[in-house]
Amino acid sequence: MNELQDVIGAIRPLRQEAKDAASVHLDNLTKPPGSLGKLEDMARQLAGITGEVMPDMSRKAIVVMAADHGVCEEGVSAFPQEVTRQMVMNFLQGGAAVNVLARHAGAEVVCVDIGVNADLEHPDLLSRKVRKGTANMAREAAMTREEALQAIRVGIEVADGLAGRGVRVLATGEMGIGNTTASSALLSVLGGIAVEEAVGRGTGIDDARWLHKQEVVRRAIEVNKPDADDALDVLAKVGGLEIAGLTGVILGAAKNACPVVIDGFISSAAALVASRLAPESQPYMIASHQSHEQGHGRMLEAVGLGPMLHMDMRLGEGTGAALCFTLMDAAGKIMREMASFESAGVSRG
Q: Which residues constitute the catalytic centre (predicted)?
């Protein structure tokens, strides 16, 4: 825990001077002040994070954490658990949606096995398995507190490694059949949200399984009695290994003064945990989109984030974050390439 506190203690406030300088620059461009909306907000935020008015954010990486969930024993998903393993191999072969959109955005995909219930080998896989999947949280704690801490440390180490080789912006992605169930439980406890509002349809379950999924989440909360004032306790009891790993990625990104683009519902559950562990990490987060998953809007509100996009997506993997990278590139080009009133000879209003 001391190591985690050291990381949290290393997170610094955004650089206000750089944000102010970015605002001055934006207001000198040939447009009404604020007329580019969230692109301008992003430009200011990136300046504050990096300390540079026009940072080079071309080195991008999406960290896809993969793990299995014991709660799948309760029949909460439309897909069998072995899909987690199969999709990890798909990521590594470059054939998943996140690979396609990452290539489109000029980003690399880093796949981490933090808890897949299988023995996986691939030269491009980061094997950091804490355990082979969580326990069934409807019957017992998903993992121990130490396992949750270990998974967070894995995410911090991955973020440190990427930042150390020049990656300037990170994004969160995930794979794990059953992980919307864990994320819904985290939202319900940490966000104080009723289970029926927090639980969505995940991969597309029918009404009967949706009601059953709500009951499973209620049971998990009743059995484990997570302490809403202790985010690590909640994460360990009703969370997931990939969620814990992404929590670490977010904290590690903030420690390294890197913006971190948050993907969908599961990634936002990690953002919620990170924001409760370290409120100082929240200004480093950028919410890429609001997904079609029922509780995602409430999750973002609980973190204090507003989405850049509304695309009715619900795939996860980091797909929404990859699309947001293109908006980040656009914000950078506005800062670097748009003419000022003076250079263009345009009169101010």
A: 317
